[in-house]
């Protein structure tokens, strides 16, 4: 008689059994197996999982997580060096995911990740935080590079898989994703709600990319651009006005910047509280002091080795 029950009813009945009994019930038939699996998923209240540094884990872990922990909201998989883009397909099953950390997952590339997280099939998860730091294989979706070469602009809501569909993003870390270029960043970084952004150690990131990112992410409050050696005063002259809410800015080791950029930021970013210009040889201590006088509410200026000096101003 139980065999004739709808799957939903059978799942509801089995959900009252303790876990060992659910496992026994799953052996009765295929229908009972499906019901027992559904009951197990519905009972799982885990919303946060940290698998960082579990070096032996591979693509199968994502399949297991997406099947058994569908209510998961926070997932960290730092340094899972065996995880590949093939495993990312399973991320599409985590529809409640709010933060994802895949830093140093060096075999993950952008195309399959975009397909999993921003698929046109259904709404993407309400992802608010995404870290792909040190993913050296991360490349933009080929569609982005192709369109960057022509006059046609990318649709704000692309029909093909794209990270652009993750419009709930508030934090994004692309540190040391060294294969990303101005062309891809210009197309991808259009997140009006983004608050925190890290683009450190991007050797191909230039003024063009800076201006486009500033216009595409106007609500940013915390920006890290350290070791972006192609950025110049001209780029900041165009970008600074797009970030009036900026509070924390790290420009350490940006070797081409001069005191002109400090003047620009001082005029455009009145809410700034923390500034890091360490290892910027084109900025002098005199310029740092003028900036501090211009914005007295700035509580910390990291200025080690600017203009050959080794100083940190903290108020």
TrEMBL record:
Could you tell me which residue ranges the F-box domain spans?
Answer: 1-49
Keywords on this record? Answer: Leucine-rich repeat, Ubl conjugation pathway
SUPFAM superfamilies cross-referenced by the UniProt entry: F-box domain (SSF81383), RNI-like (SSF52047)
Q: Identify the GO cellular component terms for this protein.
A: SCF ubiquitin ligase complex
Concerning InterPro entries, the annotation shows:
F-box-like_dom_sf (IPR036047), F-box_dom (IPR001810), FBXL15_LRR (IPR057207), Leu-rich_rpt_Cys-con_subtyp (IPR006553), LRR_dom_sf (IPR032675)
Which residue intervals make up region (Disordered)?
141-160
Name the domain of life this protein comes from. Answer: Eukaryota
Task: Keyword check for Lipoprotein, yes or no.
Answer: no
List the SMART domains. Answer: FBOX, LRR_CC
Q: What processes in GO biological process is this protein linked to?
A: SCF-dependent proteasomal ubiquitin-dependent protein catabolic process
Q: What is this protein called?
A: Leucine-rich repeat-containing protein 29
């Amino acid at each position: 008689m139980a065999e004739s029950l709808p799957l939903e009813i059978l799942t509801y009945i089995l959900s009252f059994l303790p876990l060992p009994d659910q496992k026994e019930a799953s052996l009765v038939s295929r229908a009972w197996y499906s019901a027992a699996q559904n009951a197990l998923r519905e009972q799982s209240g885990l919303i946060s999982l940290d698998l960082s540094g579990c070096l032996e884990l591979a693509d199968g872990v994502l399949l297991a997580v997406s099947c058994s922990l569908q209510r998961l909201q926070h997932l960290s998989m730092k340094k899972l060096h065996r995880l590949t883009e093939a495993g990312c397909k399973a991320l599409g099953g985590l529809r409640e995911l709010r933060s994802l950390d895949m830093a140093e997952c060096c075999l993950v590339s952008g195309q399959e990740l975009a397909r999993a997280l921003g698929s046109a099939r259904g709404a993407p998860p309400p992802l608010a935080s995404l870290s792909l730091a040190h993913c050296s294989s991360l490349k933009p979706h080929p569609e982005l590079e192709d369109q960057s070469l022509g006059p046609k602009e990318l649709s704000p809501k692309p029909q093909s898989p794209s990270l652009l569909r993750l419009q709930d993003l508030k934090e994004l870390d692309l540190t040391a994703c060294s294969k990303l270029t101005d062309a891809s960043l210009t197309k991808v970084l259009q997140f009006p709600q983004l608050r925190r952004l890290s683009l450190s150690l991007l050797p191909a990131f230039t003024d063009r990319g800076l201006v486009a990112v500033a216009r595409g992410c106007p609500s940013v409050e915390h920006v890290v651009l350290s070791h972006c050696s192609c950025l110049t005063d001209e780029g900041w002259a165009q970008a600074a006005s797009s970030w009036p809410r900026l509070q924390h800015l790290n420009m350490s080791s940006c070797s081409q910047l001069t005191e002109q950029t400090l003047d620009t930021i001082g005029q455009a970013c009145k809410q700034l509280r923390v500034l890091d210009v360490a290892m910027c040889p084109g900025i002098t201590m005199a310029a740092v002091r003028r900036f501090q006088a211009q914005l007295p509410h700035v509580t910390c200026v990291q200025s080690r080795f600017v203009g050959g000096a080794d100083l940190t101003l903290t108020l």
